[in-house]
Amino acid sequence: MLVGILLIWFYRVTHHTVILVGGGGEEEEEEGMRWARIGLFMAELWFGFYWILTQSVRWNPIRRSTSKDKLAQRYGSDMPGVDIFVCTADPHAEPPSLVVSTVLSVMAYDYPPEKLNVYLSDDGGSILTFYALWEAARFAKHWLPFCRKYNVEPRSPAAYFSPLDASQDSCSGGNGDAAAKEWLSVKDLYEEMANRIDSAVTLGKIPEEVKAYHKGFSEWNFSISPKDHHPIVQIMIDGKDANAVDNTAVRLPTLVYMAREKRPQYHHNFKAGAMNALVRIPHKGVISGQQQPIILNVDCDMYSNNSESIKDALCFFLDEERGQNIGYVQYPQNYNNITQSDLYGNSLTVINEVELPGLDYWGGPLYIGTGCFHRREILCGRRYSRDYTEDWRRGAQRQAGESVEKLEERAKPLATCTYELNTQWGNEIGLKYGCAVEDVITGLLIQCRGWKSIYFNPPRKGFLGVAPTTMAQTLLQHKRWSEGTSKYFSPSTVPSCLVTERSGISLFPKVTSLWFIPFTYVMVGRHIYSLVEALRCGCTFNGWWNGQRMWMIRRITSYLYGSIDTVVKMLGLSKMAFAITTKVSDEDASKRYEQDVMEFGYSSPMLVIISTVALLNIVCLVGGLFRLVLGWGVAAWDAYLIQVILCGMIVAINMPIYDALFFRKDKGNIPPSVTFTSLAFVLLLCAIPLM
């Protein structure tokens, strides 16, 4: 492949010097033709550079395993405490019933409950989310002992009781009618809780009689909006209280609700700001009573799928020989709602199975914002030093006899808008501000301070989340991921046949030329290698094919928009924004997703780009074939075969787009306004060479 890429570059430089000097080639070329060649050459240069980068993570992938039995033998009851952070921001985009299922899954870890402290950050400051957490705190008294007794996996009740999860059919720790009766009892309790929460969200308010059961509801007696509210800290379960036990008299983990202060005149720095507020409150030992040395953060839709993930992560941190320089342990981002054909290319299978293990060899993976165990000190700005030794038993003990109310009042100043003013928070301390992908740049900063990271992908996935189920959700998510990172868009999706049809000049070597070989080899070899790699990682052929389509679509939409937004923000022409990917879709859209039918159903500039490129390719393919057969003759195939094949591949991969443009009648089709706009652009582009 490398030889083929180098030969392609050599061909461009030696056969089309007009690209570099603007003239002096074998034939005089029009201005438009020269720019077409320059664009194509730049795309080929970038493809080669990108291929070299991606090959570097395939040379020596690292696969890791742990020995949790040795961990327990060596440390026993002296294992460190863990603070767990769950972040949410909008009860309508991120349903509270989904959020609390994630919270319950991390509360139910197979780990001493007195060493667990779970914090939910609600950046929307919604009483609906608080109500859901209050319901979850009550349900936890039944759910946690049920999980322990029957060794339940996964420990998210939404996932466990889902019809799609086969594990619900049996309780591994028991048998007979008693186990079945208990299973049904807990299932009924969960469904009743979920129905109450969903009903409150639908109505937009909670039952008035509920407000008398917890003092925290009084926080919403004041005027509150998602972007303008006072700090709220409520301890739902105080793990230090001897009376905070489940229905089998076992201690419950600490559970805390936090909504940091937001005011219009202060920039709140999105998720990074929420995470930094979460880091501060436990760091001061206000609520948990001690500064737990390990932090786990998860997104609100990314539930724990493996109850022993904490022990797995600690095997790396507590390793006496190689654990001292480990800053964080990153689990892969997996989803539980991917269809068999991976319609929107969201499975990340090759990234998780090939590229992240490869990065582990080069010093560790990126921090991807969820499913990550951190050494607390790295989030507080500490640089790696060989002399540094972690005290896993350290901790500032809480003052005896302090009431919950006093603890909450002590914590609130740490969550105010003004706390970070004139400090290093967001710069040298905590997650870094100034970028929508705060996780990536924070991980890079940690590695620049000398710390290593670990990628761990156990046979049973550590975390599972909800993937986007519509085109709009997918493009929005990738646009956000691409802002500030090295994603790229590809100009090669603009058809070369458009130039050829109007100029009669080929952009590629003739079939009878020896230079045809490297172009063909690279084109075919790249796709065969990609297909084999995907199949080895567990993908299907349809999944790989859909992934190729989505790569093309994302390059000309999400990554293009993300790149433009990044440049504009760097120039100071606009402010950074953070768009939340909604975790809900209507019933009809969900059915179409399960049937592997792409969901459009909206008008947007991104959809116009997608439709225009698809239409332009099919127009050029038909026009080019017509002129080859009737105008230029069969002999012209020698010169234009590569361009016809490229254009034909893009047409083939865009078949669902044509279906949505002209044939589908459901609500998920492409709106007529987008179709007419795209057709107008195609006509304009086809007319340009005639002017």
How would the global form be characterised? globular
Largest sheet: 8 strands, mixed
If you average the pLDDT, what whole number results? Answer: 87
Structural class, please?
Answer: alpha/beta
Strand content: 5-15%
Physical arrangement of strands within the biggest beta sheet: 3-4-2-1-5-9-7-10
User: What is the alpha-carbon Rg in Å?
Assistant: 28 Å
CATH topology of the domain at 93-164 and 176-387 and 395-467: Spore Coat Polysaccharide Biosynthesis Protein SpsA, Chain A
Helical amount: 40-55%
Task: Tell me what the CATH architecture of the domain at 93-164 and 176-387 and 395-467 is.
Answer: Alpha-Beta Complex
Q: Give the class-level CATH name of the domain at 93-164 and 176-387 and 395-467.
A: Alpha Beta
Spell out the CATH superfamily of the domain at 93-164 and 176-387 and 395-467: Spore Coat Polysaccharide Biosynthesis Protein SpsA, Chain A
Number of helices: 24
Low-pLDDT parts are 23-28, 486-493
Gap between N and C termini: 41 Å
